[in-house]
Amino acid sequence: MMKRILTAGLALLAMTGAALADDLMGDWRTAPDDNGNTGIIRITQCGQSLCGTLIQAFDSSGASVETDNVGRQIVWETNPTGEPGEYRGMIYAPDRDRNYRSRLQLSGNSLSVSGCVLGGAVCREGGAWQRAN
């Protein structure tokens, strides 16, 4: 009996984690990067984690542009931390051609993005992304 209760509890906990992650899924318009460019990142389920792919890029005037980064995974290995709206994982910054350990903080239709490298010695704010769908 105790084993069934424990199994049911673990299943409920797993479903709760998935439900929390669902809040992050969808399309997000990035904040302007160092060059003023923005993009649309599509967050989806990738195995046990979330990932995000750049599906469209825009220059500083808002015009759609072609770039080798379209189709590239920008967010990966991202999971809820257990804190309300907080996710941790990895993120790629095309303007700096660098991977960062990321912290994503969801608040309604806004996603605050930041990342660090070198064990937290160098951190960067990625601005607030806005839900695009």
Polypeptide structure, described:
- This protein is of the alpha+beta class.
- It has one domain: Lipocalin.
- Helices cover 16% and strands 52% of the residues.
- The chain has 1 helix and 9 strands, in the order αβββββββββ.
- It has one helix spanning 2-22; strands at residues 26-29, 38-46, 49-58, 64-65, 73-80, 86-93, 98-107, 110-117, 122-131.
- Strands 1-2-3-5-6-7-8-9 form an 8-stranded antiparallel barrel.
- A hairpin with an 8-residue loop joins strand 1 and strand 2.
- The model is unreliable at 5-20 (pLDDT under 50).
Q: What's the helix and strand layout?
A:
Elements: H1 2-22, E1 26-29, E2 38-46, E3 49-58, E4 64-65, E5 73-80, E6 86-93, E7 98-107, E8 110-117, E9 122-131
Antiparallel strand pairs: 1-2, 1-9, 2-3, 3-4, 3-5, 5-6, 6-7, 7-8, 8-9
